Amino acid sequence: MSNLLANLLSTDQLKFNKVIDQLEKSSGNPSIDVRLMSEIIQLLRSKAQQTGLQPEDFTGKELYYALKERAKVHDSHLDQRLGIRSGSKIEQKAIAVKSVIDKSKLNKSVWVVKKSALKRLLQINPPKRVMEILNYSSVDSMIKRENLVEIMGAARFLEGEAWLSKFNKQYNKLSPLDFETRKIEIFVMPSERWSILSQEVYRHQKYGFTHYKELGFVSILPSIDQNQNGYCLLTLPAILHYINEIRTYSAFFKLQQVRPGFGKLIVETLNDDKLYISELSGSKIHWRIIQRHYGRPENTVHPSIFQPQLQPEDLQWRRASETLYMIDPELSYWRGLDYIGSSIRASKPVSLNLLDVAMSYYFGLDFNNRIFSHMQASLWNELYIRYLGHEVFESQMLSQLGGLSLNFSEIF
């Protein structure tokens, strides 16, 4: 079973088996890896059958194109659900996506940098190209009149890496007093105003959204590609994913507010994602896994080590596919598939993760160029979350958090 998991994760089998052996022995051999793989196989066969394939006899290629066809149907249904008419522009679809997320009951409360502090940092290090495009000679005038989410969304792509690195270094000077609790803000960048930005976005990443973890901002960017196929089915779960990411880092920053060197920690976290803060049987554990373990709806435990900085609501976490189901019940097909994939008769895995499938559909990728990275990341998380739920590991992890010292190594 571990070999099947290793294939899905595209990782070295010998190294992976060693990791699993250590986790199993330390936890009394509960066969967590075997049960996880059995669940994956069962779900995979069920979903394959729902797409019209024989559950015991299908190839990776057949599954891939069946999933893309299912994505096509669901994208059309989602457009109808969002009230999008035929011939609508991409920007109109983006506004519809923002509207449905704004109206959702999803917890969007985060602990992030105050806008007053952000304005102060912009005054020290003005985004000059953004100012030029918006016809401002004074940064004070710009930040007084313009939306800060729009300014920062444009600055990420127009000002260059040197400006962003210099801007991030300013967080060294911030203290917890420069943070506040407020709602995540989503902003749709007007295409007419930011036509130059669409060129930069396409050059860098080819998809139209970005976010700032420390600010609680999500920007839906104008796109040079007016491809309508799959836009909403891709953008909606992507923004939900960003909301989860912002809340994950918000909880971490909030937990660390009483520790010395808070500003330095912010900079290191943003620049290098140095959040491997625990270790289970030699495996480095990211804060994301810890937060999701305690943030699941069924987990009612809130360790005293998190108090008083973190409350249970700070750790709340819900899979994007669960939220999608609440927005459009037709999308229930994708529930629980975040970490599900197939390595049957394929050199690389076929992902059932909606973000992977939606990206493959939106970009018109053939079988050989399929995307599966989100499935693999989710599978790693799921594997460690299940082991973390074991009493011996949970106690070990809480003990390590008590004397927290950041470990900056990768898992492999």
Spell out the key features of this protein:
two-stranded antiparallel ribbon; three-stranded mixed beta sheet; 8% strand; 412 residues; single chain
Describe this structure in words.
The structure is a single chain. By secondary structure, this protein is mostly helical. The protein has two domains: 2-81 and 322-402, no CATH class; 89-227, no CATH class. 55% of the residues lie in helices and 8% in strands. The protein has 19 helices and nine strands. The strands form four sheets. The protein has a three-stranded mixed sheet, sandwiched between helices. A hairpin with a 2-residue loop joins strand 6 (276-280) and strand 7 (283-286). The longest helix is centred in the middle third of the chain and has 25 residues, at 231-255.
> Overall pLDDT, averaged?
89
Count of helices?
19
- Give, in spatial order, the strands making up the sheet with the most strands: 3-5-4
Total count of domains: 2
Compute the CA-based radius of gyration.
22 Å
How many strands, what sense, and barrel or not for the largest sheet? Answer: 3 strands, mixed
- In helices, the fraction of residues equals 40-55%
In whole angstroms, the N-to-C terminal distance is: 20 Å
Shape: globular
Percentage of residues in strands: 5-15%
Number of strand segments = 9
